[in-house]
Every structure is written in C-alpha cells, then in structure tokens.
Amino acid sequence: MLEEKRRVSKEEALSLFKNADLLGLGMWADIIRKKLHPEEVCTFVVDRNINYTNVCINKCTFCAFWRDADDADAYLLDHETIFRKIEETIALGGTQILIQGGLHPNLDIFFYVDLLRSIKERFDINVHGFSPPEICFISDASDLTIGETLSILKAAGLDSIPGGGAEILSDRVREILSPKKIRSSRWLEVMETAHRIGMRTTATMMFGSIETPDDIVTHLDAIRRLQDKTGGFTAFIPWTFQPGNTELEAAGKNKKAKSRTARTAKISVQSPATAVEYLRVLAISRIYLDNVDNIQASWVTQGLKTAQVALRFGANDFGSTMIEENVVAAAGVSCASSLDDIIGAVRTAGFVPAQRDTLYNLLRVF
Questions:
Q1: In sequence order, what E strands does 134-285 have?
Q2: Pairing of strands 47-51, 41-45
Q3: Residue 279 and residue 233: Cα distance in Å, rounded?
Q4: What does the pLDDT look like over 246-261, one tens digit per residue?
C-alpha cells in the first residue's frame, strides 16, 4: 500500500490495476470509504429513469437501445405519458427523475425548454437530465454555445446533469465504438461549464468492451483533474458494458446485426467483464478519485449480491431504486429490485440504509 496521505499517480494506478492483489485493493478502498463515510451508512435515491425517445443519430455500436426514426418500435413520449410516470414516481416516494434520451433529429431547444417548464409547473421534483451528448446536440442544433444552452435549460428547470455518454474518455476508444458521438474534450467541457454555473453533475464510466487498463486510468485521471478545478461532481459510477443485442455482440460472434457495417467487422471485443474485474475497477476508482466523495455500486448491471460486495470495495452508495430502466434492459439485462430488496441488501451487507436526495442530503434512515 502506498503512503496514505500521498496522491496516487497515473503510473501507480496502472501498476495497481495490472498487479495488485484484489483483496488488498478492496481493503485499501474500504479504508478510504470508512474515512470519508465513518457512519457506515449506505445511501440510495428513489427515482425513475425516463427515456423520452429511443431515436438516436449516433447509433453507437455498444448500444442496444437506439432506433432510427422510421423503425416500427421508435418512439417519442408525449407530455402526458411523462407526467404520468412522474406522478407514479412521487407516489412511491421519489424525489428525482433521471430524464435522458437519444439524439432525435427533429428536436430542438424549444422542445426541451417546454418539457422542463411543463414538468416544473406541475411537480416538485428534481430533474436530473440530459447527458453531455444531449447538451451538445441541443447546442449545435440551436446554434448556441454550451454555456448558453445550459443557462437556458437551467432557467427552464434543469437541476443537475447525469454523467451518461462518457463511456471511456479516450478518443482512441470513442473513435472505434461511437465515431458519431462527441469527443472526450466536449464531454468534459459540458461538465466544467455546468459546474461553473452552479449545476452539480455525476460522472460515469462504462468499461468491459475494447478498452485497455491504460484507457481506464486515463478516464479516471480526466475526472480527477476536472474535479480539482471545479468540485462539481457529486459521485462516480463505474458500470460494465452489457453486450446483448448490440452490434459489438454480433461482431464478437461474427454474425449480422441491425445496421451492422464494416466499422464492427474488425473490432476485437473482450469477453464481458466479470464480477472480479468490476470490483477491481471499483476499488481503483475509490483509491484514485480522492476528491470525489461518493462512489456508486451498480446493482443494475451487477445484481444485488455483487453490489453488496462492492460496499466493501469502496462504494458507499447503492444508486437508484430505478423504478424504470430501459437502456440496460434493451441489452437483455434485468436486475429489477424493490425498495425493500435494496434496504434488505444494504442491511445484510452490514450497513445502515438511507434514502438521499440528488445532492446526497439524507432524507430517511431505515
């Protein structure tokens, strides 16, 4: 173990990734977690993921959710459907909606402003919405700067921004997996700009596709550097690529898939990340991100059992009750859990379960 008070370098993190004993990493991450959260409380938020459209021009090879506008199962939710989902969320004790969608070519900033205002006029709920790719799409379509776009959306009712669309903040990887998606510099620009105008955000990382350990450490370093500048990230959420029904899965099996092109034909796809690999990345994330208070376990992709173990590998938060989730489900992965399931899992793992809000203020201790 390195000296406790010294910041871990990129080179050291890479060495840990490749060589360190898994249980030793877990113990180190757990020590850090205990120092940051000595009360042994594990938090979660009650919310719903509302995907307002599955139409997306990016067509990322790792995504099973996107559709073309003329596909039979393409959709764009109307306001009444979204309102009904919010009403159900509030009835279940929800304090937040996570609203994200594809990059629909027919939508502009007026759609988003109208949606936000109509939600805020009717409901007292935090809107955690529109990942950096969506923000950039709105900005470009409306001939506005990132700062102007975020200020307009904030005034209309956007409270905070999720970390979606980060995947791996390495343009080498992004060029292969999602050549139409924004580069890493624009993702970071959106987050820095949001932080500068007083909006808090989360940061995510999707791993287990084609990246290397060096790409993962590069991603962590980008998050840590921005957090040093702004302090605007509330949490970091690493989660594993789910290959089901994606072009990458087909490329790995050498089979045809929807809209498969030469871009996937030569991609060397890894086997899906194991629970052991997930825990290693989680622990290193806790060790390296010494300026991010909260690390979230991904029970949605890992299941409750692995998420329980994650609480001893540096995680202090169980994420969301996820009343509704569509993107991971599109890949054929469904780890549905009730509020009681999450409370029970947290208690069984030896922690005190507590409901929080978006900014990690405690609302209820169970």
A1: 160-161, 200-207, 233-240
A2: unpaired
A3: 22
A4: 455 555 555 444 444 4
Q: With H, G, I as helix, E, B as strand and everything else as coil, classify residue 362.
A: strand
- The one-letter amino acid code at 150 reads L
**Domains in the chain, number:** 1
Q: Is 171 a residue whose pLDDT tops 90?
A: yes
Q: Two tokens at 14? A: 């890479």
Domain for residue 3, yes or no? no
DSSP 76: B
Report yes or no on 6 lying in a domain: no
The strand pair at 126-129 and 233-240 is best described as: unpaired
CA distance to 37, 205, 283, 306, 315, per residue, from 278 (Å): 22, 11, 9, 9, 12
353 - beta bridge partners? 42
**Sheet order of strands, 362-365 included:** 317-320, 41-45, 352-356, 362-365
Count of all residues that appear for the chain in the document: 366
- The one-letter amino acid code at 124 reads D
Instruction: Work out the number of other CB atoms within 10 angstroms of the CB of residue 267.
Output: 15
38 Cβ contact partners less than 8 Å away, ≥ 6 residues apart: none
pTM of the model: 0.89
CATH number of the structural domain spanning residue 262 = 3.20.20.70
Q: Which domain holds residue 340?
A: 19-365
Amino acid at position 333, single letter = V
pLDDT band at 267 (very low <50, low <70, confident <90, very high): low
